[in-house]
Here is the input.
Amino acid sequence: QVPLVESGGGLVQPGGSLRLSCAASGFTFGLYVMSWYRQAPGKERELVASISTYGNTDYAGSVKGRFTISRDNAKNTVYLQMNSLKPEDTAMYYCNADRRTRASTYWGQGTQVTVSS
Here is the structure.
């Protein structure tokens, strides 16, 4: 398997919810900061949320109060719960794993989230 595989994207109406998952393999998951990025057409890649090896979280201002990042180290999986979705959330969402103390990072292939009525 590839190091990171995202799933859970799809089409949802404004105000709806989606839960993205990112399954990791081939590296020591617990040593990596996990993050979700997104990129919309014509825009730069944006950091959406991150979670440290200890569970501390950070969010982009545009998603605070609506999105929640979490991780399950026993399952080598990171999640992004997205509530109250807006059309502006439409983007390709990418999972990232980064080991701060080493030159090691991984990217997933992305999963498309489309918020539209």
About this structure: The longest strand covers residues 91-99. The CA atoms of residues 8 and 87 lie 17 Å apart. DSSP finds no helices and eleven strands in the chain.
